[in-house]
Amino acid sequence: MKAVDEAAAGQESSGPVVFLADARTKVERELIAEWLDAGHADEFAAEAGERPSRLLLDSMRIAGALSGRADDPLVVPVRVTWLPPERDGDRNARWADVLTLNNPRNPNVLAQRRIVRDHPERTQVVVGAPARLSALRQRHRREVGDASPDSLARYIHRSAVVALERAERAVTGDRYKVPRLVIEQIMDSVGFRARLRDLARDNGIEQAEAMRRARSCLKELVAVQSKVATDLFAQTMRPLHSSAWSVHAGASQLDGLRALNKRFPLVFLPSHRSYADALVFNDFLARNDFPRNHIMGGANLAFWPVGSLARRAGTVFIRRSFGDDEIYKACVEEYFAYLLAKRFNLEWYFEGGRSRTGKLRAPRYGLLNYVAEALRARRVPDVMIVPVSIAYERLHELEAIAEEQRGGKKKAEGLAWLAKYAKAQRLLAGNVYIRLGEPLSMKERLAAAGDPLGATDSVNEAAGGDDLAARQRAALQKLAFEVAVGINRVTPITANALVTLALLGVRDRSLTVGEITAAIAPVLRYITRRGVPTGNVAVLRSTSGLRAVLADLTTAGVVTTYADGEEPVYSIEPGQHLVAAFYRNSGIHWFVNRAIVELAILDAAEAGFVDPIRAGWKYANVLRNLLKFEFFFPDRDTFEAELREEITLIDPQWNERQPAVDELASALEGTGFIMAHRVLRSFLDAQLVVAERLSARPDAGLDDRDAFVDECVRVGQQMMLQGRLHGPESVSTELFATALKLATNLGLIQGAKDASAAEPGAVGEDDAGIRVRRQELAGTLATAVARIRLAEALDPSNRKALPGGYS
C-alpha cells in the first residue's frame, strides 16, 4: 500500500489535528488507521503527546464534533483510492468489470479484501489539502453566508471532498478531474439564493417554490461525473471513430495550455463537421492526460442509454430553447459561472450545428454570452478561448447532410440512428487533423472591442441599458469572429479538398490524371509560397499518389471513374456534387482573397480603368459585402492589405511600376491557375437565385422563409438544367438560407428583425423602393456570375493539360 501525503508540507507546526476519513467500509477505515498509526499522523505536527482526532467524513458527525469548537484545529481529509488492474499499459475500468458487478474504482468489501491481500499496489491513501477550522469558517461566511452549525458542517464536508478529488488526480491523472457536490454548492451560494429570492418576487411565487424549481433545473443540467463512467464512455464511443480515422495531433500543442489552465479556465471552441468531433477531440485530450472538458450538447443527443452515460462522463445537455423560464436561465448562468470559477474547462460547437457545406458556419452567441456574464460579474479573472480545427479527409455521414441541402428533413437521433452510424464508422476514412489555434484572452478581447466589463457598476449604469447591451453584443460578435478566424488559420488543406476543387471547377467534363495534375500543380506551388497548413497533400506530387486519392474517392462514391478508353478519366459522381463541395469547402477560405483579386482585375479590364488597383479595391469591397455571411473578412484596411499581398504573388513588381490592367490580367494567367470559378461560383449562384426570386415577388415582406427556401431549391434546379447555374452544388438549402440572411441584412425584406445594416434611406421604404433595390442586387450578382464564367474561360487548366511535372 502506498500513500500520497504531499499535502502535509508547509502546515503550521503546532495545534490540534482532526483527520476526516472519507471511508465507507471497514476495510477502508482499517487502511486509513494503519496509515495514520504508521507515523503519518505525526507528520502533521500535533502538540507533543496529543493524539489527533479521527472523524468519519459525515456532515452530522462534523456538526457535532467541529462546528462548536472554540480552538482552531487543522482539518485533514484522507481517503483510500482504489485503482483498476493495469491492462495494456493503462488502468481503466472496463465494461467487463461492471458487468461482473465489480467496480474497480469502488470495489465491494470482499473485493477490497482480495485487493489488499493480493494486489496492495492497487490501493493508495491520499491526503487532501489541510485547512484550519478558522479558515474554513471564514470561507463559509464569505461564500454561503449562513452561520448555522449544519450549514458549516455541510461546507466542511464539501471542501474535504473537493480537496480529496484534487489530491486523487495526482494518482489517477488529470483526465479524471471531475466536480463533486455541484448542486449542493450552488444551492448554498448566498448570491444564487439572493437571485432566486428576486425571481420569486418578480414572478409572484413563493421563495420555497423558486428553490424547488432551481434544484430541479440543476438536476437536469449538472453533469454528474464519475471516473468509471468516463472510462466506460470512452470505451463505448471509441469504435465510432477509432476504425474510421487515424488521428494526427501533436501532444506538444497542449503544453502551453497546461500552464494557462493552472491560472484560468479554458473554453475550447472547435469547428463542427461531424458527430464524431467531440469523441475524436476528447480522446486526444484523454490520451495526453489533459483534464476532460464539460461538453455542452443539445438535448437531441440525450437519448437513452447513451445520453445517461454521456452525462456521467461530462456532457451537459442544455435545452435548445428556454422560453420565458427565468429560473432555468439563472441556473444555466450560475452553472457556467461555477464551472469557470473552479477552473473546469468547457467545450461546445459555436456554429450551432454541424456544417452542411464544409466551411465554418456563422457563430451562435448564446453560450458564449454566459461566459462573458461570468467575467462581467467578476466571478472569474479571465477565460482563455481556444479555437480548435478538426478536419477530416473523408466523412461517412455526408450523404445525409447532402440530402438535407437538397431539401430533405434531418433524421432524428436515436438508437436506430446510432446503430446505422456505428456500422458506417467501421469503414476506413483516412486521416483526421486536430489543430489548436492561438488562445484568446476573453477579457482582453472584449475590452478592446468596447465591452466595459472592467468598469465599475456606476460607470456601466451611466452608459444606459440599451447602449450598454449593444456594446456588449458587438464586442461578443467581434470575439466570435476572431475565434472563427483562429480556426480557419490552423485548418489544413487536404488532398481530397484539392482534388474536388479541380473536378468541381469544370462543367460536364471528365479529366485525365494529366489534366488534374495540371490544375493542381500551380495551386500546390501557391500553397507552399503562402505557407498554408496542409494535411496529406504531398501525395498529390506524384502520379501514383494522385491515382490513389482518386481511387479512394471513387470507392467512397464521390468520384466516378471511366477506364474503358485509352486512359481513365474522372469526374464527380452524379448526385454527389454537394458531397464533393463539402470536401472542397473545408479549405477554400485560403483562396477567397485570391478569387476576389481575380474578379477585381477582370472588372477593371472590362471597364478599361487606367488605375486598375484603385478600381479593383472598390469592386473587391463590393464582393466582400456580398460574401460577408459566407466568409470571415477582417476590417477594410486589413482586407485591402491582404489583397495587396495576393497581387504581389501574381505580379511581384506591381507596386513599383503601377501596371496597366492588361499586364495584370496577363500576369494572372501566367500563374497557371484561376480560382474565382472554383471558390466563389456556388455561393454567388445561390445568391443570384435568391435575389431573382425576391425580385419576382410583388410584396416586400416574407412571411414563410422555409417555403421561400423550398421555392429556391425548385427554381434553382430548373436554372441548373437550363445552364444558368454551373452545377448541383449551387442548389443548397444552406446556401439559400445564408443568401436570404444577406438580403435581410441589406434591408430587402420589409419588417425583418435583423435588417440592421439596411442601406441609408431604406427605413420606412415602400414596396416599390424595395423591389427596385432587389432588382439592383440581382443585376449586381448577374454581373459577378458573368465574370465568374470569364474567369473559368481564362483558367489554363480548362483549356489544356499543361505539360511537364511539378516544380
Describe how the helices and strands are arranged.
Layout: E1 2-4, E2 17-22, H1 26-40, E3 53-56, H2 59-65, E4 74-82, H3 95-99, H4 109-118, E5 123-127, E6 131-132, H5 133-143, H6 149-172, H7 182-188, H8 190-203, H9 207-221, H10 227-237, E7 246-248, H11 255-261, E8 266-270, H12 277-287, E9 294-298, H13 306-312, E10 315-318, H14 326-341, E11 346-347, H15 366-376, E12 384-392, H16 398-405, H17 415-424, E13 431-436, E14 440-441, H18 442-448, H19 457-463, H20 465-490, H21 495-504, H22 513-530, H23 543-555, E15 559-562, E16 569-572, H24 577-585, H25 592-607, H26 612-626, H27 636-650, H28 654-657, H29 661-670, H30 676-679, H31 681-695, H32 705-721, H33 733-745, H34 767-794
Parallel strand pairs: 1-5, 2-3, 2-4, 7-13, 8-11, 8-12, 9-10, 9-11
Antiparallel strand pairs: 4-5, 4-6, 12-13, 12-14, 15-16
Helix pairs in contact: 2-6, 8-9, 8-14, 9-14, 10-13, 14-15, 18-20, 21-22, 21-24, 25-26, 25-27, 25-29, 25-34, 31-32, 31-33, 31-34, 32-33
Description:
- The protein has 807 residues and is of the alpha/beta class.
- The chain folds into five domains: 2-132 and 145-170, no CATH class; 199-442, Glycerol-3-phosphate (1)-acyltransferase, CATH 3.40.1130; 495-589, Orthogonal Bundle (Arc Repressor Mutant, subunit A), CATH 1.10.10.10; 591-671; 681-794, no CATH class.
- 52% of the residues lie in helices and 9% in strands.
- It has 34 helices and 16 strands.
- Strands 7, 8, 9, 10, 11, 12, 13 and 14 form an eight-stranded mixed sheet that branches. Strands 1, 2, 3, 4, 5 and 6 form a six-stranded mixed sheet that branches. Strands 15-16 form a two-stranded antiparallel ribbon.
- β9, α13 and β10 (315-318) form a beta-alpha-beta unit.
- α25 (592-607) crosses α34.
- The radius of gyration is 31 Å and the shape is elongated.
- The termini are far apart.
